[in-house]
Amino acid sequence: MTDAHSGAAAQLDAVLAALEGGRAAALERLFELLRIPSVSTEAAHQADCARAADWLAGALGELGFEARAVPSPAHQAGGHPMVLAHDPNPPANALRVLFYGHYDVQPVDPIALWDHPPFEPKVETGADRVARIRARGAADDKGQVMTFLEALRAWKTVSGGFPVNVTVLLEGEEEAGGLSMEPFLEAHRDALKADIALICDTGLWNAETPSIAVSLRGLLGEEVIVRAADRDLHSGHFGSAARNPIQLLASILADLRAPDGSVTLPGFYDGVPETPASVRKSWDALGFSADAFLGDVGLSVPAGEADRSPLEQLWARPTAEINGIWGGYTGDGFKTVIPAEASAKLSFRLVGEQDPDAIRAAFRAHVTERLPADCTAEFKGHGASKGVTVDVERPEMKAAAAALAAEWGVAPALVGMGGSIPVVGQFKRQLGLESLLVGFGLEEDRIHSPNETYRLSSFEKGARSWARILAALAE
Question: ∠371-372-376 over CA atoms, to 5°?
Answer without folding.
Answer: 55
